[in-house]
Amino acid sequence: MPKRPACTGIRLQGCRGLTKTAACCSGHNRWSKIKHDKAKVDASVTRQRAALAGELSLASKEHGPDPKTNSRLATVIAAAKKVGFPKISIESAIARGQGLSPSGAALEFLTIEAMIPPSVAIIVECETDSKLRTLNDLRLIIKEAGGSVTPTQHLFDRKGKIVCENPEGVGEEEIFDRGVEAGATDVETLPDGSVIVSTESSETTSVAQILSESSALKIVSSNITWDPKEEMMVEVPNPEVLSSSLDKIHEEPSVQNIYVNAVSH
Fold first, then answer.
1. Contact (Cβ atoms closer than 8 angstroms) between residue 150 and residue 115
2. Residue 152 per-residue DSSP state
3. CA–CA separation, 88 vs 8, rounded Å?
4. In 3D, which of 57, 46, 43 has the Cα closest to residue 90?
5. Is 165 helix (H, G, I), strand (E, B) or coil?
6. What does the buried/exposed string (b/e) look like for 58-79 if buried means 16 or more CB atoms within 10 Å of the residue's CB?
7. Closest to 40 measured CA to CA, from 12, 86, 1
8. Banded pLDDT at 40 (limits 50, 70, 90)
9. Which of 27, 114, 230, 235 is most buried (most C-beta within 10 Å)?
């Protein structure tokens, strides 16, 4: 993350003399650091809660909503409680995995496309029991971030993403060969040892099945995602601003996934 310059753009009128100027600057720096550090903590908490909610929903969807018979769900619930995840949010995420709202109403799928500063395209996927309410809420959040709701799907491709665990430590070259043989378009090994296999959207299910049957890889999830087109990627010089906007969007309870065409160096 780029370091914010001290006192940039501030006119120190009335601060005559070295001592007083230094005091004004010092006060500004300290307040900026407090706000900046708090923002980083808040963003970290937001991302952590979003990740836990996703894990709760996935565990509920794949193995059922009862932690007594779903050990994976029980483990995630314990982890969520340990970091102070609210009980109502845990119940909501579990219900969402069953396609229901906390009240038991059926959820509908909603996709919102928008542009947010600095000229970054986003696609937001939601599951909601009220499309109109969610659309209005997200329009307001996007507007407050300086963006607008507008078509952006043409800047992305529809792709399959299969996330796998590699419990037996299969070599990267073997994983790549197995993936290509199964019909994958790309295979990426992450630092934590997990593997992401990319496919054409229409081949996602069949590739996941072949990998599951022909390799030691364990399929964790299999989804259709929006992959930004390489030639349409936008370089973001100050990723903190973009991250702040995305965190605010992710705080809307219905939001499940956000896809962006941004890259930072």
1. yes
2. -
3. 43
4. 57
5. strand
6. bbbbeebbebeebebbeebbee
7. 1
8. very low
9. 114
Element (H, E) at 260: strand 255-260
Tell me the residue type at 125.
E
- CA 55/CA 93 separation, integer angstroms: 9
Residues near 24 by beta carbon (within 8 Å), at least 6 away in sequence: 12, 15
- Residue showing tokens 């029991």: 129
CA dihedral 82, 86, 87, 93 (to 10 degrees): -100
Tally of CB atoms within 10 A around 261:
20
Residues 160 and 185: their CA atoms lie apart, in Å, by 9
Determine the Cα–Cα distance for residues 145 and 188; give it in Å rounded to an integer: 33
User: Is 125 exposed, middle or buried (CB count within 10 Å of its CB: 0-12, 13-18, 19+)?
Assistant: middle
Structure tokens at 117: 């500063």
d(CA 75, CA 67): 8
pTM value? 0.66
Q: How confident is the model at residue 23 (pLDDT cuts 50, 70, 90)?
A: very low
